[in-house]
Amino acid sequence: MVDELEKYRKGGFVDVPRIVKDSLESELFPGMLPEIESIRETDFPLFTKLGRVYLDNGATTQEPQTVKDRMYEYRKSHMRGSNHSKNSSEAKEAQEMWEESKDKLSKFFNAENYYIAYTGGTTDASNWIATRFPLEKQDTVLITEMEHHSQILTARNMAKKVGADIGYVPVYKNDGRLDLDKLERRVDELSGKKGKVLLNLVHASNVSGVVNPVKKIREIVGDDCYIYLDLAQSAGHMPVDLDYLGADFAGVSAHKMYGPMGIGAFFIKKDCEPMLKNDVSGGGAVDLVSKHFTAYTKPPARFEPGTQDLEGAAEWGFTLDYLNRMGMDKIASHDHAIGKYFLGELQKIDRVRVYGPADFSRGDRSALFAFNIGNFLLKNYGEVAQKLDKRGVSVRDGCFCAHPYVAKLIGLPSIAHEARTGLMKLGVSGEMIKLPGAVRAAFAYYNNLEDAYKAVRAIDEISKEF
Ligand code: ALA
Fold this sequence. Notes:
By secondary structure, this protein is an alpha/beta fold. Helices cover 41% and strands 15% of the residues.
């Protein structure tokens, strides 16, 4: 395929407009969705109408028109009901929809051995594990260096409350992959110690695109270590089989998988449910309350106090129907095909440095790419993102809510990062203190080859301006 593609190289870049004109996309980029143009026309007409190349899919994704329409019809034809009322027709109907949506989630993630509680999103789910996990002084929370702040801060908060230890599992600075040997050593050391171990683990990184080998990690850490898995960046891009991966707990957001904003889910392996505390509570989570006693209700209701986002759940259910029709395998292949092409071209642009694995050969990379133009100390990422936006390309720039990981990937010594953070905590500010970041382009199944091509050409042009 590579050789074939080389025939279409013109002025240093693969001549995508010619390939498209000759309808050779599927032949030259195996794995691409053959129906991509009709998907865009039916479900994402705004891309063409507004002339946007949307590559900020790591931050949030776009919702298909089919899902929006279905939700609109649902709202038009249904009266609202609450999850607390039992006998009104509206409440019954709303609760049926809610159960149906949960059922769809359970099937989608192969999570029949899990309880599912709705949350506000992945950050909310990280906070849930941090408030409900029965951490004690003799326990340890392990956090990988590639975690999002929602995983780091919540873990630190929970550990601080009881005086438990925190440990970091290092990543390799060249490609951002997790150091599995060090993880194994760390867990071995802890096995002689009294106390539980909880590992906060991201499935797919929002900075480097590294996809962690969760199943292998489960084997390494053994059954005695609890794993909380952050699915924010993987769920919309690849099939996720929770039962196979073997996580004890997991969190996900609907809006990163083409669904509505403001709703997510928290998965709890049924065996692990009894240990979880009721520190987030309220109406609906109980069977009986007296002035001095509380009889909590059964899971998952005991994890879902208050009036829930029943409409969000319905909409998410419609999204899951849509994704099931598309097929997550096909979505993953498409992401890969476009991502491979984009990465190859990006690497050819002078002075562009891409972080994370340099290719897709090990099957542990997603189509999300953080990069810098020139030395990271230039801190030009904001300007690059603005210039891309002016050319119609949406990306995210900054430190992606993963400061320790970004610092390591760009090559800032850990001591320098600690010193900067310490100074900032003391109120010192200024350009010197600010952590340098990067620009990030993240693909989704609705991006086509031209999107990637336009972004590559724009980045090339911009690179010459610095
Ligand atoms: N964590 C999200 C991102 O990486 C918001 O953009």
